What does this fold into?
Amino acid sequence: MSTVIETKNLCRTFGEGETQVAALDQVDITIKAGEFTAITGPSGSGKTTLLQLIGGLDEPVMGDIFLSGTNIAHMSGAQLSDFRRDHIGFIFQSYNLIPVLSAQENIEYIMLLQGISAQARRERVEEMLALVGLEGLGDRRPAQLSGGQQQRVAVARAMASKPTIILADEPTANLDSTTGVALIEVMRELNKKLGMTFVFSTHDHKIMDRADRLIHLEDGVIQLDELRNS
Amino acid sequence: MLTLKLAWRNLFRNVRRTVLTCTLISSALIVLILFDGMLLGMVDAMVGGITKTLSGEAQVHKKGFRENLAPEFYLQNPDEIAAALSADERISAHASRVIVGGMIASSRNTIGGVIYGVDAESERNVSKVSQSLYEGKYLSGEKREILIGKLMAELLEVEVGDRIIITAASVDDNEIIQELFRVSGLVEFGQTEIDESIAFINLDAAQSFLGMQGRVHEIAVRFINAEDAKDTALPILKRLNQGEIEALGWPELQPSIAGMIQMTDISSGLIGSILFILTALGVINSMFMSIYERLYEFGIARAIGTTPGQIFSLVLLEAFLLGAMASVIGLAMGYFLSSYFNVNGIPVGEFEFSGVGIDGNLRTELRSYQFIAFPIYVTVLTVIAAIYPGIFASKITPSRALQRTL
It folds into this structure.
């Protein structure tokens, strides 16, 4: 399997002088296409920072980030916008969706940014809603959906642009455990069915158990990197 | 379409704020329409006060006559000029006049004044002399009849039917001549200067009295479209404006009033600018509040690939929709109010401005540009005011906006 994510000597610090904190310290990871990887660790361990750097939402102070062979560490803001739009799908913890757009419009929005035709967008929206089990709910606004349904819409949106990788930062954090596990099952199924690469952070052991690979971070340093269930 | 839908729905996230901002913008437009309508109404009243009262919209004289009303500066060929004016399709009416300064004396008092010899019939279509009749009867062609202003009658202490004597200099030999007239009517124009100092006699009587048969000092002109009087390049004016003859529109005849009108244009622009600045500040404030409320959402939008330019465009599109919506409301309200005041007038009391009387009701004037250009200005201004908030929104970095999560 080809490498889709590779970080080399990745460092990120916050603050200056005596208050400077190393959020990530010389992190080297390699993730292959189709992996279903969980990043774990206590609060402040650097999970979110790592996902932000891989997703091109933040810049490292040192090191390189290769996504499908392209180094995004030194891209300009506009280049990163285009790269994120075409190669990365994001699922956020909560308040993921644009509240004034319906579920299908939220999914359609990213394809609009990609310049996909209206007809193709509509077809793909239907396909995505079916994949996440939300047929018939496309017209509902986020406020009319449950938390689990909203996160499924977020998953559908993340996949609609046909990205290379999907990054999710504690996507189940605001869901009850049953709904959280159900969401991860949806993600897992899509990962197996479509071969899409998922990288997500979590505290929850039930969620971790569904991952192929666990990367455990503490104080910005990788403490454990193990393959599971594969 | 989806972007338009998004912008439109974003506007109504906070209905109260949108309604308030919309009210601010539409109020500015309403004030602008009304203020411009009032100024135009005032200008029209002032110009009408000059052109419709006595002077006409344009006048033809011998050059030099206007400086001191010297009687020897008469038009040599008034019939030719009158024929040319009659043949021009832009001109609705013209009236020939003899004008001379003289002493007007009653049995009790004597005052200096200006005597207008007018053709009773053609004067009806050019000036308000006949309409200003306050007491007695209008000129009928009788040799000794004279109309005087109500204020002049008070100064001379005469009434209708009383006799007055006019003393003037004859045109050809400059001899002092006198003629007896009988007051046939009193006129009131509402302008002190005219009501105190002008008397009207028949044109024939004036020509005979002053020894200038077939000659006149002035031909007053009225156009079908009053705006033509402002056009110095108008063919009929250009044609007549040759040699010793001058044919001038009212802006050249009354430069002080033309200057006043220019001043009203400046004040209109000034008020418009102040309104625009105040409105712009309101719009900027409102857009910033809206952006701050949606920082996290902008973070998400940026994270999933929305470019800074697209965020900027979204903010500007929201401002455009807000401005357009407010303009439609302001336009409708402005039209309603301006139409109402156009019919009923704004009671301002009677006053005289620069020697021109304004009656008690100031009527707003409606012009198409008020309802086409002004709403466009207001909408464009709203969009311009959103540029700064738009730049701010476009510079939001996803990592900072998304601090709560990824």
Summary: The two ends of chain B are 29 Å apart (CA to CA). Residues 2-49+258-401 of chain B form one domain. Chain B has two domains: 2-49+258-401, 64-242. Chain B touches chain A through 27 residues (CB under 8 Å).
